[in-house]
Specification:
Beta Polymerase, domain 2; six-stranded parallel beta sheet; elongated
């Protein structure tokens, strides 16, 4: 019996590709059951989050199973070839990858805890749908014990290492907490999305999205449970928000000093946190000279994130060692 994993994630595919292969939480069991009808596949688990979709299979012949699965997925591809976005992992490599996913060291936000529950939910859905057997049952149970061990014996969850999360940490230090704060996103790119998601996870109440393409603003706002604002009206929203994340492709500054000066009185001079993650910069540096305004650009945030990554690299090495040690104890056919 062979073990294999076919997947794509935030590192290999943009969101417009990932969303084509996403599976809703309530459909994970059905999706896993559907795979058993494909040639050679005897066990299956489907994991799907905003950052990844992965298919774990047990099969008599991995080459035949992989070919059948790729043909099955071909109808969801975008115009052109999506094949390059997928990674294919076999036997021990697939087991190692699953343990890294569950441990949070393959995540966009290193050490995140949410993925552990998401994988458990996916496995439970497959188990309930009777699509798992001896190989995948033991593998997934082992991955959960590895994930717990990693979080108990290392500090992988401590500290933020992404630009977006460093920005959110800074915002929390300024406001004390982000509960009930209001956020405006200028632009609808992936970095803005990730930063906004982190803000929401820390308690942000309202998200406003503005973009030159109102349709894109509407889509992102819908994903975030927020509201779209037409690009010509974003300055009016500036009166009420606490945090602004700007990430457009504009060749020149969009947010200028007078834009903020004009709403200071209406804002009652409340603190305003500006995160400029665009290159070229969206926010005129002069905005940061205003007394109650805190402005950070991509270089400053990246420097802080890199310092955090340096501290975490040692922790990653310890996590990898735990995974290798635990997998060595798992004597399974197919590994």
């Amino acid at each position: 019996m062979d073990l294999l994993c076919l997947g794509l994630n935030h590192k290999t595919a943009p969101v417009e590709v990932r969303e084509r292969f996403a599976v809703g939480t309530t459909k994970l069991g059905d999706a896993a059951h559907e795979l058993l009808s494909l040639h050679g596949i005897t066990e299956s688990v489907v994991i799907s989050t905003c950052n990844r979709t992965e298919f774990y299979l047990a099969a008599e012949n991995s080459a035949d199973a992989l070919e059948a699965l790729e043909s099955h997925l071909a109808t969801r591809q975008l115009p052109g070839d999506s094949t390059d976005h997928f990674y294919r992992k076999h036997k021990a490599e697939a087991a190692r990858h699953l343990c890294r996913v569950v441990s949070g060291i393959d995540s966009m936000m290193l050490g995140e805890t949410e993925i552990f529950g998401q994988v458990k939910q996916a496995y439970q859905a497959a188990h309930t749908a009777n699509t798992t057997g001896g190989l995948l049952n033991r593998l997934f149970q082992k991955s959960f014990s590895v994930g717990k061990k990693v979080r108990t014996e290392t500090s992988i969850q401590t500290g933020s290492t992404s630009v977006g999360n460093v920005a959110v940490d800074l915002a929390e230090k300024i406001f004390g907490h982000l509960k009930n704060s209001e956020v405006m996103i200028i632009g609808a790119g992936e970095m803005a999305r990730v930063t906004a998601q982190s803000l929401v996870s820390r308690g942000a109440r309202s998200i406003f999205v503005t973009n030159r393409s109102y349709d894109r603003a509407t889509r992102l706002a819908s994903d975030m449970g927020g509201s779209a604002v037409r690009f010509d009206d974003w300055q009016s929203a500036l009166e009420r928000v606490d945090v602004v994340i700007s990430s457009t492709g504009s060749p020149h500054a969009i947010v200028k000093r007078d834009s903020v000066e004009n709403v200071r009185r209406a804002r009652k001079f409340r603190p305003l946190f500006l995160i400029d993650i665009a290159v070229p910069r969206d926010i005129d540096p002069a905005v940061g000279e205003i007394e109650e305004v805190y402005l950070y650009d991509i270089d400053t945030l990246e420097q802080l994130a890199e310092e955090a990554r340096d501290r975490r690299r040692k922790q990653i090495e310890e996590c990898e060692q735990i995974i290798e040690t635990e997998l060595a104890k798992l004597k399974l056919p197919g590994l």
